[in-house]
Design brief:
74 residues, mainly beta, two-stranded antiparallel ribbon, 5 strands, 0% helix, 42% strand, elongated
Length: 74
């Protein structure tokens, strides 16, 4: 299986770009804010990365989750 890296930009400074890989194929959706419990299956996993911009250096939390199908939410 090939790892699918995604390219992100720091949500705090909007200057530093970085790559992150989902923890597995099931947790394919992501958010910088904790997703609502009713919007995903199972558990959300978190990944914390520190911004490498000297002026920022804030922690970036990525929430990885398995999204629910549209009709499962109704």
């Amino acid at each position: 299986m090939t790892e699918s890296k995604l390219l992100f930009r720091c949500p705090h400074c909007n200057e530093w770009t970085f790559e992150a890989t989902p923890p597995d194929s099931r947790h394919s959706a992501f958010s910088f804010e904790e997703p609502l419990m009713s919007s995903f299956n199972g558990e959300a996993r978190t990944q914390t990365i520190v911004c490498q911009n000297r002026k920022c250096r804030k922690p970036i939390v990525i929430y990885w989750y398995a999204p629910m199908e549209y009709f499962d939410r109704m």
